[in-house]
Specification:
This is D-serine deaminase-like pyridoxal phosphate-dependent protein. This protein has 366 residues and is α/β, with parallel strands linked by helices. It has 12 helices and 21 strands. It folds into 2 domains: 133 residues, D-serine dehydratase-like domain (Lyase, Ornithine Decarboxylase, Chain A, domain 1, Beta Barrel), CATH 2.40.37.20; 217 residues, Alpha-Beta Barrel (TIM Barrel). Helix 5 runs parallel beside helix 6.
Amino acid sequence: MSYLDQITSPTLLLDERICRINLQKMAEKAKRHGLNLVPHFKTAQSHIVGEWAKEYGIKEITVSSIKMAEYFCGQGWENIHIAFPFNPLETKKLNDLAKNQSISVQLINEEVTKKLAAELEFPVGFFIEIDAGYGRTGVEVSDFGMIESIMRAAKVSGKLKFKGFYLHAGHTYYEPDKNAVYEQTRAALSMLKNKYITEYPQLITRTGDTPGCSVMEDFGDIDEIGPGNFVFFDMMQVNLGSCKMDDIAVALAVPVVDIKKDKKEILVHGGGVHLSKDVLTELDGSKNFGEVVYLKENGWEIPLQRSYLKSISQEHGIIKASDDLLSKVKIGDILGILPIHSCMTADCMGSYLGINGQQIDHAEGD
């Protein structure tokens, strides 16, 4: 049975072929630069996608929460890293995970480090998260006092093992000069490595943003990369120059429920609860909540004339339709929407339908 015959309501489609190409390209890039690829699975959140990743030599993953780490435990990963400043209220859960799974966390202050040092029952690795310009979280790159207080607090315990420094250069999402951002990242991590490598000879450095990891070719002496969104990509990444539209591996299938040819508008069942409300701004100032594609038996096709989702509410979406789309579509048809932010769309939907008809798991759907 065609995957199209299974769709009666908003459904997130996943093209395995495109996803695998994205995984392979990033794995080959990492290998070319002598880097270990530890992808951030906050995007896919899927055991099945994880099995695909293993076929390209990926052995470790990053997640964004204890809950997500629990989901991926027992799947054969050599290590699962939780890339979020550790929440001390979840120390018991961390102990439960560490019984049977190699796991690491991120630390940014002495208080949480002391709590873990006192309460851990099993070995846990940790990275010190560094802020070198993004401004969201992390220890300031020049705050050696804080860095060393975390290291000292960890040494009290034989269970808390320092792994290295983690830096998420998230400002590549809004800074136009990505080369300058990455020069800052390379310099920060190299300085820290040179400063502490004698005391910690196994120290590693990791960075992990999709825009930078996709376009940069000079990683200096960085050891590991951990991008996430590259697995699926999305219209935001297209807008940033990280990929092309045909690299996007997911599309939201939406039923057409009304057509207003005089207004050049198409009403679809698909809104904020499906796509999230991430948005791009068109040149004329209008909003774009997703790009329309034509669904075919073997995937989707990018039309020559653009149509896009110009507004959404909770369940509704209104498409600004091209003449070509209006000439082809009828009520009851199904269109595809390439999401602005695939991570959020996947999280909203909680499952995938492969274009081969396969049901594909997602952590939020279990």
